[in-house]
Amino acid sequence: MKNIVKDLNIKHIAIIMDGNRRWAKENNLPTAAGHKKGVEALRKTVRACDDFGIKYITVYAFSTENWKRSKEEVDFLMDLVAITLKNQLDEMHKEGVKITFLGNLSKLSKKLQKVLLNAEAKTKNNTGVNLQIALNYGSRDEITNAVKVIVSKGLKSEEITPEIISENLYTSQMPDPDILIRTGGEKRLSNYLLWQVAYSEIIVIDEYWPLFDKKLLEQCIDEFSKRQRRYGK
């Protein structure tokens, strides 16, 4: 598989990790159990990306719209992020994973912000898989923020190009995703990386996120290998 990834020049995979709650419901488990199982799936996927030679993986952990969920679930999710990082950061650091968070982190608690910044600082020089976690992220919010930054720099309208906009997005330091995977069967982008996935191959699978593993990632790559990316040509 590593040779296939190299031949296909797959550098970046983005994932909408959907189906935690549905998986829990179908297994007569509380919602929290689905989210915990989802964390396990993420660790498996990061390791699979490392095995396959995929340098970047960006996952949708919490959107700007997810605040509409119950306070109990939101609080649990935020605590789960903090606990997971505290428990697994050392191991991920040893594996060479570089962690970055995308989104408006100022909306998060100061305590959680400190945990996130510590994870970024500790892993910033790592050279393994680049794991980007979209947290309090919304693509429209991201693009709006990029426009504000560009305006604040005093650029004239004729100076603004697609490249300038890309340089002011949260993802400015990484290539656009080659593949966007959505688990759980839903066929929508949900305000995720709208600018960046303009030419990504979108692959939707019915399996819920807690069931995602190395084998399913292989299947997605196999599907990608059958696509022809024409970029409008």
What do these coordinates show?
- This protein has a six-stranded parallel sheet with strand order 3-4-2-1-5-6, sandwiched between helices.
- The radius of gyration is 18 Å and the shape is globular.
- It is α/β, with parallel strands linked by helices.
- Helices cover 45% and strands 15% of the residues.
- It has one domain: 3-Layer(aba) Sandwich (Undecaprenyl pyrophosphate synthetase).
- The protein contains eight helices and six strands, in the order H-E-H-H-E-H-E-H-E-H-H-E-E-H.
Summary tags:
45% helix, 233 residues, 8 helices, 6 strands, alpha/beta, Undecaprenyl pyrophosphate synthetase, six-stranded parallel β-sheet
The portion of residues assigned to helices is 40-55%
Can you name the CATH architecture? Answer: 3-Layer(aba) Sandwich
Report strand order across the widest sheet. 3-4-2-1-5-6
Question: How many helical stretches?
Answer: 8
